[in-house]
């Protein structure tokens, strides 16, 4: 199936943007953004996201998914340096403490590669 989604995040740290300067030299564009979204299972979850490495890496944390009892998902997305038509999505699941109801969960990691199809 498909899941259409939009990534929402802070501004990039790639270039200083004076519109984000609060006048005291603080640049608030690069602070993480916190949003609530409904995931594909219909659960309302909290997502924190931001850019790193001069705007090359998009990082996010997903929290509050009831089915994993406090476990969190960490994701890093970036384009391959040698082939910018390939998007890498590296996702890690951090289980809740073993002392909680969700203690049966274990750490997990999966890396997806998505290649842009170009019409020829």
Q: How big a fraction of the residues is strand?
A: 35-45%
Percent of residues in helical segments? under 10%
Largest sheet: 6 strands, antiparallel
Number of strands: 6
Unreliably modeled segments:
none
- Helix-strand category: mainly beta
| Element-level helix/strand string | EEEEEE
Rounded radius of gyration (Å): 17 Å
How far the N terminus sits from the C terminus, by CA atoms, comes to 26 Å
State the helix count.
Answer: 0
Summarize the structure in short.
By secondary structure, this protein is mostly beta strands. 0% of the residues lie in helices and 39% in strands.
Explain the overall architecture.
By secondary structure, the protein is mostly beta strands. Strand 3 and strand 4 form a beta hairpin. The chain has strands spanning 33-38, 44-52, 57-63, 72-79, 86-94, 108-115. Helix content is 0%, strand content 39%. The protein starts with 32 loop residues before the first strand and ends in a 5-residue tail after the last strand.
Which descriptors apply to this entry?
single chain, 120 residues, mainly beta, six-stranded antiparallel sheet, 6 strands, 0% helix, globular
Secondary structure layout plus pairing:
Elements: E1 33-38, E2 44-52, E3 57-63, E4 72-79, E5 86-94, E6 108-115
Antiparallel strand pairs: 1-2, 2-3, 3-4, 4-5, 5-6
